[in-house]
């Protein structure tokens, strides 16, 4: 299995980080890069639109991966740069955590980068992820 270091993924994500404002909406201010079990990197950016029709950077990166007919995510990161220019690693929101899980059941073992030297398994970030047993 081929993986990239946290720093390599952070660097790859920040290379596609290009915020752009359209009206009162901001596109591309969060970027995500993931590495698959085949060792391929896919990146994407967020798009903020009205009426909740936009999507997170992780969704865009995963969409690129699925377009290439890959489904297993080994490692994923999302980054954002504040107004002062400081780069931050962002944890995936709950919607993204569930989206990662639903793309492939093995993605519960995805390593989520939370900083240069900090990661957590998606399984840890998405507790109670098993379908419940019937009550009776």
Automatic annotation (TrEMBL):
Domain of life, source organism: Bacteria
Matching InterPro entries, A to Z? Answer: APOBEC/CMP_deaminase_Zn-bd, Cyt/Deoxycyt_deaminase, Cytidine_deaminase-like
Task: Read off the SUPFAM superfamilies from this record.
Answer: Cytidine deaminase-like (SSF53927)
Which molecular-function annotations from GO does this UniProt entry contain? Answer: cytidine deaminase activity; zinc ion binding
Gene Ontology terms, cellular component aspect? cytosol
Q: Which CDD domains match?
A: cytidine_deaminase
Q: What family is it from?
A: Belongs to the cytidine and deoxycytidylate deaminase family.
* Protein name, as recorded: Uncharacterized protein
Species per Swiss-Prot/TrEMBL record = Streptomyces scopuliridis RB72
């Amino acid at each position: 299995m081929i993986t990239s270091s946290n720093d390599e993924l952070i660097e790859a994500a920040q290379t596609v980080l290009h915020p752009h404002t359209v009206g009162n909406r901001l596109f591309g201010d969060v970027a995500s890069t993931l590495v698959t079990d085949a060792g391929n990197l896919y990146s994407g950016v967020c798009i903020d639109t009205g009426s909740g029709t936009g999507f997170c950077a992780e969704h865009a990166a995963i969409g690129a991966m699925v377009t290439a007919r890959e489904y297993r995510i080994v490692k994923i990161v999302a980054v954002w740069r504040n107004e002062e220019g400081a780069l931050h690693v962002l944890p995936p929101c709950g919607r993204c955590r569930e989206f990662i899980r639903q793309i492939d059941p093995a993605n519960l073992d995805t390593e989520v980068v939370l900083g240069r030297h900090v990661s957590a398994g998606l399984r840890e970030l998405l507790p109670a992820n098993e379908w419940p047993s019937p009550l009776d």
